């Protein structure tokens, strides 16, 4: 090879190496910034957020078969895992432990404000009201993070059970100042293939929204249903969009969602698993949000860290890898604006001022 060719080749190799190094450095800096940035979590189910190590330990202590944990996460498998978790989380002491551990994990991930949701259960002779009181105490004692509660209505338990739970919560809100401060909304969740449609629960959500003045976080369009359920949820939300957020809302176009809800709670790992997506780039709601204008605001959420093996910072990184560069600070601001407690904005400002991210 001619000396001048050797020199050219050397210069090209040096240039390429410098470009690769700059790319790696930029990527490392982006990832570090996203990990540390101030975040908001609006869609996380308490029992689904159990630490995997805690779940494995509890299952082993109780001699329970945990084989479902090794299976690919379809919607069906997720609900088998919830059944296992519910067998393991069999006392209010354990409920308190998993709540504290999850708050710790969120704080480490840069979360300034969380709305945790859970379905009250009567455990070991204690009532559903005791369950709500316990969770509210733990959330009110959290430090370095502001935590609020959404009471979950599990559609598969049916409307009578939901009415009974909400009557107890209404009573508690009147008699317990901590519960009154911490409970900021009601969630509609549970197996989306359940026979119970939203119409059986609508009067309860109307009461929560109009008489209690609280927010409604409604799971909708997580999986297709043939009974017009989604249309009823969308119509309910359209009446007072600022009081309603949607969980998942995977099956709709931007046009269908317009004017319906203040925000969509997107859960990347959970949605990718239940939709069986090969790549997050194909997530229908995230795709619309980042590729079209006029798409409703969305929040990046975890859903069930214990079931999907994800984390809040990890979900932000996945979105960045699939759609970046995108404005993640705006995503957090949108989430803060749609929080059911206005104190979220202050929690976000405080953390940003303290950590400068
Ligand atoms: C619908 C879900 C869910 O309430 O015992 N839950 N409901 N779709 C999902 N997507 C995967 N993930 C969790 O937490 C577990 C309960 O949350 C609801 C289910 O009712 C599940 O049993 P809690 O704290």
Automatic annotation (TrEMBL):
Belongs to the metallo-dependent hydrolases superfamily. Adenosine and AMP deaminases family. It comes from the Eukaryota. Residues 39-323 form the Adenosine deaminase domain. Its cofactor is Zn(2+). This is Adenosine deaminase domain-containing protein. The keyword Manganese does not apply. It catalyses: N(6)-methyl-AMP + H2O + H(+) = IMP + methylamine. One of its GO terms (biological process) is purine ribonucleoside salvage. The keyword Cytoplasm does not apply. Pathway: Purine metabolism; purine nucleoside salvage. GO terms for molecular function: adenosine deaminase activity; metal ion binding. InterPro entries: A_deaminase_dom, Ado/ade_deaminase, Metal_Hydrolase. It holds the Pfam family A_deaminase. Keywords: Hydrolase, Metal-binding, Nucleotide metabolism, Purine salvage, Zinc.
